[in-house]
Amino acid sequence: MKSNDEPRSLPHITLNHKELLKGTTETIILSALREQPMHGYYLRHWIRTHSNGALKCSPGMLYPLLHKLEKQKLIEAQWKRSKRGPRKKEYAITTQGHIILMENTAEWLKFVSLIHQLIA
């Protein structure tokens, strides 16, 4: 805690610049899409809000990764009409995406537990 007893704010991390997040961005995206289908802008918003502003995802990192996940059949995309403005591409997790998400989540939890054991 700071001397005035105010809680410290979390540092902002850009997903495509931090070594610790390499390989986890796909799992974060699949986790978000598990909640509901989303278009890219909302997905960026989801990551930012669910990390309390600590994680930010640039469009230059997100959209190529979405295309990669779509090519791997872990997500699927559909063009949807927008209430305002042009149509938007909405992404949804597939059955295979759910399987990979569960596997990645289990691996990540084991890894976090191991690191905790080593540094605690």
TrEMBL record:
Domain Transcription regulator PadR N-terminal: 29-99
Pfam families, sorted: PadR
Gene3D superfamilies: Winged helix-like DNA-binding domain superfamily/Winged helix DNA-binding domain (1.10.10.10)
InterPro entries: Metal_resp_DNA-bind_regulator, Tscrpt_reg_PadR_N, WH-like_DNA-bd_sf, WH_DNA-bd_sf
SUPFAM superfamilies documented for this protein: Winged helix' DNA-binding domain (SSF46785)
Lineage top rank: taxon: Bacteria
PANTHER family xrefs: PADR-FAMILY TRANSCRIPTIONAL REGULATOR, TRANSCRIPTIONAL REGULATOR RV3488
Protein name (database record): Transcription regulator PadR N-terminal domain-containing protein
Species assigned in the record: Candidatus Kerfeldbacteria bacterium RIFCSPHIGHO2_02_FULL_42_14
